[in-house]
Amino acid sequence: MALTARKSLRLEDAGLDKFYEDNQQLWADMAKQAFDYAAEPVRKAGEPVRQDDVLAVLVPALEIAQLLRTFLADNSLRQQFWFTYFAEYIIDREWPTLTQNGGN
Questions:
Q1: For residue 86, which of 12, 25, 32 has the smallest C-alpha distance?
Q2: Radius of gyration of the chain from Cα atoms?
Q3: Structure letter (DSSP) for residue 101
Q4: pTM exceeding 0.90
């Protein structure tokens, strides 16, 4: 599922947009690793890499990222959907970079 306006606004209300900006390189690196991991089998199947392919790899990585876990706990954001929403946000922001130079 792609990032929607509703999800983006919820992330902004929770301060996760600023949190992303403050740690942008970390999230960009994680997104690149998730993209690279997802890309190989997807391309072997003759398909283009899609955002949801990357999402399936990035969410579990975010679920164990201590920096994000601490931010969510400190801000009483205990629902599991925050990991998925934030992953969608990261992918949305990083997608142009991930797919440049024929990355898709």
A1: 12
A2: 14
A3: G
A4: yes
The CB density around residue 51, as the number of other CB atoms within 10 Å, is 22
Domains of the chain, residue spans: 5-98
What span, in angstroms and rounded, lies between the C-alpha atoms of 55 and 39? 12
Is 104's pLDDT higher than 90? no
Answer yes or no: are the C-beta atoms of 90 and 31 closer than 8 Å. Answer: yes
Is 92 within 8 Å of 3 (Cβ atoms)? yes
Q: Distance between terminal CA atoms of the chain?
A: 18
Mean pLDDT of 5-12: 98
Tokens of 16: 């996760």
Question: What is the pLDDT at residue 103?
Answer: 59
What is d(CA 65, CA 33) in angstroms, rounded to the nearest whole number? 14
Amino acid at 35: F
Q: Which helix (H) or strand (E) holds 18?
A: helix 16-22
Q: How many residues does the chain have?
A: 104
Name residues whose C-beta falls within 8 Å of residue 23's C-beta, 6 or more positions apart in sequence: 67
